[in-house]
Amino acid sequence: MQELHTADELAEATDDLLVRWGGQALTTDDPARSGMAWRSSGAVAVHAPQLNRRDRVLFTGSADDCADLLAEVLPELPGERVRPLAPTALAHQVAERLDLDVAATFGWMHLAAEPPRARPDAEWVADEQEVADLLRIANPTSWLVPGDPGAVRWAGVRDASGRLLSVGADSWPAPGIRFLAGVATAPEHRGTGLSTVVCSFLARELAREGAVTLMVDADNAAALKVYRRLGFSYQAVTALRA
Hints:
Blueprint: E1 2-4, H1 7-13, H2 17-21, E2 36-40, E3 43-51, E4 54-60, H3 63-73, E5 82-87, H4 88-98, E6 101-111, E7 122-125, H5 128-138, E8 151-158, E9 164-174, E10 177-185, H6 194-206, E11 211-216, H7 221-229, E12 232-241
Parallel strand pairs: 4-5, 10-11
Antiparallel strand pairs: 1-2, 2-3, 3-4, 5-12, 6-11, 6-12, 7-8, 8-9, 9-10
């Protein structure tokens, strides 16, 4: 087994965007978020603490190689709530080999088309208190809020009076990979296309920095419709309980 020390080494070991997204844990000086990465035979894995609110181990490769690698590294990782994460078929194969439980299945998406045209009616939001106030009403269980370690900047759409109606965030960035999260629209304005405006703006802006990715609940039909219309491709991923 070879330890990978930098995000560049991780990117050289695999082109899997999900695993490379975890490479941000190799770039931080924050001990609570710093991680480790390894390669062994055909498997690559990265431990990314507090990545999108979970201590994740993202992995790729053949099921046998991944099972062997995880069997070696998982017992050495701190914490009791580590979540191995991989495409669903691979995750289930590894779970069977290591006798792990399935925690959840959801969607991992990446922008697989030309970035959508930026919408002029969206903008970067400087006042994060406005964002927090909207999220408290529009999405009180949002996995990303202002002040979170992964929140980089917020975009939004306003009405004619300047009131913030819809938001989304640039968050949890890794070298060459950006992550879109925190999308929410005021309840009385849902269904009017405002989330599409915000996500179009974010996808266009973030594509300047690299691949654009996001996570979505598999049963969130409205969000899936927006993301697919913008050119995002869907892959089912499954988190395990280590």
